[in-house]
Amino acid sequence: MATSDEPDPSLGFPPIVGEATRILILGSLPGQQSLQAAQYYAHPQNAFWRIMADVFDITGSYEERCEGLRRAGIAVWDVLASSVRPGSLDADIEMPSARANDFDAFFAAYPAIARVCFNGRKAEQLFERMVMPQLEGGERRYVGLPSTSPAFAAMRYEQKLETWRSILQA
Fold this sequence. Notes:
By secondary structure, the protein is α/β, with parallel strands linked by helices. The chain has helices at 32-37, 48-56, 62-71, 103-109, 121-130, 157-168; strands at 10-11, 23-27, 74-78, 80-83, 99-100, 115-119, 141-145.
């Protein structure tokens, strides 16, 4: 628990997941707009939901989009369960406060997951550092994808879309 001098940690969300999940997409930790809306990828300039619409025709309300992901066999979660992070940038994650989600339990509950995709390099780095060393077995393919965050402007939307499409539809 944070003292009065320390900010409270941001807490992640439960996963969007269904019984037929074969692909897990991992972010780092929800940003401020996502936390306020209690929705994954709520920032209007984040390309995640636009990519899901273009690749899988997943549209509608947040609940409908979540159900569309489940039908497509895709789960969404974050590497971190919690961390102090002033603002929304991954660079602002305060590593001493970072706590990873329980991936051993998650993969045991959803054994059909064969591919883990990282939404951005920070999610991949956090997973490699905090999860992989303790992770119990399992045959999974791990793939880094370009971040859908508006902060990652080095790649145009069309390039992100084609990269995501090639991995998700493989």
